[in-house]
Amino acid sequence: MSGERGVVLLVALVTSIALAYASMALLRAASTSSAVVANVHARRAAMLAASAALEADVAALFRDHVVDPRADDPAHNYYASLQAGADLRGVPAALQSLANYPAEAAIIDVADACHVRHVIERLCVAAGDATSANCTLSPPSVAAAQGAPPAGEPPRQPSFRISVRVDAAAGATTFVQAIVSAAHPNPRLSWRVLDE
Length: 196
Hints:
6 strands; 36% helix
């Protein structure tokens, strides 16, 4: 009888230990799942914030004409030429660290503790009028490229690079870039996320 009690006690002890390990694994899986959900939420909030900044910059450039495209305007985060110091991904020096961001430039605070910094650069090597010698201009029609532009062909327009840095909760940073041009009905030519 005492032998049977010892076996029952041993089985109960082994079962208790197995249940404890299973409980710990379940808690770990639940905490990992919560972390993944939080990261997905932070990423979505960062993308929405970057998209809102991009749309505001497109409106400032092409609808509201807030800036003179020929001259730098750091207060509106605008530069008439590509700025020196971009990293290999194309992120401008002003966005690579918080200390580089111009003091007079606006920072957009968004819900979910996102802080958005953005820079607009005209794809030119120098400020001033946009010419084919110093700027990336919208491509001409095939006829114009062959030397015979059709009557009424619109003038070629410069392109702009909008770079956005979103600093979200828990130190997460996301970079987004877009190329835009007034030469097209939809000025957004490209949009990409630059992951670190």
